Amino acid sequence: MADVIDQIFETWESLLDEPGTGSQSARYRISGSPRFGAYLAIRFDDRAPVLEFGPITPDLLKDAPLPSIKGVDSGLSYHSQELFLSLTLKQPASIDIFLTLAARLTDELSGVDYPITGYNVIRKVLIVWRAFFSSEKKILSGSEQTGLAGELILATMFMDNGIEVAAVIRAWKGSERSHHDFQLPLASVEVKATVAHNIETVSISSLRQLDPTGTKKLFLAQVAMDSHDYGDQTLPRLIENIRQRLSSFPADRLEFEEKLLASGYRDKDESHYAQQSFQIRKVRAFRVDENFPKLTHDSIPEGIVEATYQINLGTVALQALTFDDLMLAVSSSQND
User: Fold this and answer.
1) In which domain of life is the source organism classified (predicted)?
2) d(Cα 168, Cα 164) in Å, to the nearest integer?
3) C-alpha separations of 28 from 23, 52, 125 in Å
């Protein structure tokens, strides 16, 4: 079965091929039930993509209005004398975000029978998705590209060494601004990626980053890479590799796409990322325990509420774990 996100993009391509002019529109059903459906549509006058939901009753909007989303107009439309809620994209540059939103709504509305249930699902999803449309950010900076590449490389290594593909995607939290980049069932892993020659110093951005509270085990994993012009390990290729691995996991593929958007990565900017290739130089890890140098809320004087600092890993070099050691540690509850 094709991923829902691929189906949505294919549906949009089909709509673009539909004949129509002026105020005409065309639409395809993408989800729902006989009582309540979701449709992807195109307006031929401006080629704008539209999501339509219904039929609905006007009182639904009065009781709980939809959140305002930058670049997306909400309104009402009629089809066969029935009322439908519509969302129209007004920013063509955000078409990839809009279609990924359509995929999420397709998944969430699958099997929904009643308008009130469907409307509440739509409203809940849109509240979360406001942030995807509000960002003014353009392409990722050099350090952001390095950080994302390091996380994706480590994710791929986890997959190659026995952790289920879907489980790795669910565990990846880096784009969610969580305290730790990977939250596996038996351990959490904070990733520090670098293309610098000197790998002895790492920067810690908050007092929560190396706080093991709430985790069974916490590790700091350092992914040291060399950066080259034109190679096999560019960001687009790393991402395509993971997309292919997720071909049998449609729900997790959609989650992966959402996390990519949250990280700031957009397929439309692929040309900006196709020239830099990241080759693994070294992967090592450290158990963040009472012997590892760190600052946390419990270890600082009263009155200090936040701090950024650097750690010299040379002082704990003898504690370094190989990647195989890390795999054993995050896979076994007996390794304490």
Assistant:
1) Bacteria
2) 6
3) 17, 10, 21
